[in-house]
Amino acid sequence: MNRSTKPYRLLVPVLAAGTAATAFGGVAAAATAPAPLPAAFKGQTLVSPAVVGYPPYAMLTKANKISGIDPDLSVALGAPLGQRVHLQVSSFENSLLGLQRGTYFMVTGSDVTAAREKTLDMVSYLADHYVFMSLATKPALGSSVTALCGLTISTVAADSSIPVLTTDSTTCTKAGKKAITITTFPDQGSAVLAVQSGRADATTATVTNLGYVSAQEPGKFRLGGPKYNYVYIGIATKKGNGVAAALAKAINVLIKNGGYHKILAKYGVTDDAVSRALVNPNPTVVH
């Protein structure tokens, strides 16, 4: 999963994120927090990237405030962690680079994959899957991979859909059909615009994202095509630094006290809820 780079408010205070910390009991003192971070993080400014342009995961309101599932969850995690979490607008690619550099202590909205678990510690907090979205005025996409042959598909740079589409394109050419043209953009909004302008036949992203987008303009878009990439959505952390275990515990505190479900209900995605956050779960989601 991925999002955008825009020069908005490089460091946004917690309460500017659209979810007041007091709504989840405020931020407890680190010494008494139910899910404290490793000692090395005490006293540090905790920054989480807000990858806006990917609603309802993360977006900017008309008042230029950061909103969405991921920013709200990031802020809410401050209470069980015992330290306030700040938000910084970033692209998905730069978020992962910033994680490795130590700019960010976590990156939300990362698909949990076997490849990522080799180099990162991942904490699952949602379950989702990918679909395609095209204009309603165009023919509906079939449910097989071959329905994509010869089409131009827009997606977000570094998205986990890219290797899937690459493999599907090989399937097309081996069957004597035209390859799939994959075109990438810095955020999902730009990928959708490519469909609207005719530069792409369809875009692909999670059903949570595209369902939200299509609902904003009823009758304009159609969801369809082959469903694929059933994934856990997770929080990425540096491998072995102990942050993942604290985050999993913190999410489970929010699940238990209702804060987690309150956030999901706010954005209409309660069907994506998990019963428990796990560290480096089996990336194969049963569906």
β-sheet strand percentage: 15-25%
Instruction: Name the CATH architecture of the largest domain.
Output: 3-Layer(aba) Sandwich
By DSSP (H or I, 4+ residues per run), the number of helices equals: 9
What is the C-alpha radius of gyration, as a whole number of Å?
A: 19 Å
Helix/strand class: alpha/beta
Q: Which outline best applies? A: globular
What is the residue-averaged pLDDT? 88
- The arrangement of helices and strands along the chain is EEEHHEHEHEEHEHEHEHH
CATH fold name of the largest domain: D-Maltodextrin-Binding Protein, domain 2
Low-pLDDT segments: 2-25
Helix share, percent: 25-40%
Total discrete domains = 2
Strand order, main sheet: write it out. Answer: 5-10-6-9-7-8
